[in-house]
Amino acid sequence: MPGRGREIPSLSTRHLLGIVELTRQDILHVIRTALLFRNRNLRPRRKSGLLAGVTVVNLFAENSTRTRSSFELAERRLGADILNFSADASSFAKGETLLDTVRNIEAMHVDAIVIRHSAGLVPWFLAERCTSVIINAGDGRHEHPTQALLDLTTLYERWYDPARPEQTGFEGKRVTIVGDILHGRVALSNIYGLQRLGADVAVCGPPTLMPKGIEELGVQRFNRLEEAIEFSDAVIMLRIQRERQDRALFPSTAEYARLFGLNHHRLRTLDKELLVLHPGPVNRGVELDSEVADGPCSMILRQVENGVAVRMAVLVMLLSEIRCAGRGRGCQGQELNEMQMRAEC
Ligand code: CP
User: Fold this and answer.
1) Does the Cβ of 241 fall within 6 Å of ligand 1?
2) Residue 181 and residue 190: Cα distance in Å, rounded?
3) How many whole angstroms separate alpha carbon 41 and alpha carbon 6?
4) Ligand 1 centre and the CA of 236: distance in Å?
5) How far apart are CA 288 and CA 323, in angstroms?
6) Burial of 211 by CB count in 10 Å (0-12 exposed, 13-18 middle, 19+ buried)?
7) Structure confidence by residue, pLDDT tens digits, 32-84
8) Chain-wide mean pLDDT for the chain?
9) CA 267, CA 261: separation in Å to the nearest integer?
């Protein structure tokens, strides 16, 4: 945790493009700062002025419920000015390019752009050409860094042992990512993040939904869900991404659910705790049955709760320099420390 007298840590990168670019220390700083915000979010007075005067644009060129809402709540709770921008209500529809759109928005003096786009690597493309801080809210099938950070925060809460502060809590833990690895962007970000923190990572799913050469990332591969859950301390169940599939990659939804769906019958056979995560939206009866999705092993709503805190942490860590320009370094640290002191009272 950032403690009294310490400044809020910043990331080693100017933008948040992908987990691939973050160090283990970056990830731990985000998680620990997020946990501070999570506690703050439980209190009736959740707002602060940590990002007062900073303007953030939420540019979502693809649908979203959780990511978009939680970024907006995070920005509001930090006191930032917000511009929400929807592709379907913009001049994209008239043929304006993404780069022209972003450059026009930047001409209005904004500080950061949170971007979700159906094409992979768009955040990297913008970061090279624009002046704002770019935050990736999901790029095609590629990365979804804030989703992985909130998943890691949720597991850290369960696994970190304060009696062993030199460890992350992930050492020796086994996590399997199950389902549509090929079309999902959560898998890659989580593989990088879990490995940085010391977990053993596996994947499981139909061969047609598995990228070629996935083992080269240092992950074990299971073809049967039973083997995967026997191996695992936690599973991250991924949604079947029908909108990204241009052909049928498994015989039927019922067949998929039978082979790779986690249901309460399967959980009952285990004699250990298995944490069940899902980034949402859940296809009930496909990846998870309702007994599992709503049951005691499910971390789903905790993930969503942590999502706001993680996005607050990322925004403050990336944008504090902008807010502090002219006020002297350390101004965020002072405010954060005051916030922590109030939380401790
Ligand atoms: N997990 C996730 O990215 O959900 P949304 O698509 O609703 O943002």
Assistant:
1) no
2) 11
3) 21
4) 14
5) 43
6) middle
7) 999 999 999 999 989 999 999 999 999 999 999 999 999 999 999 999 999 99
8) 91
9) 11
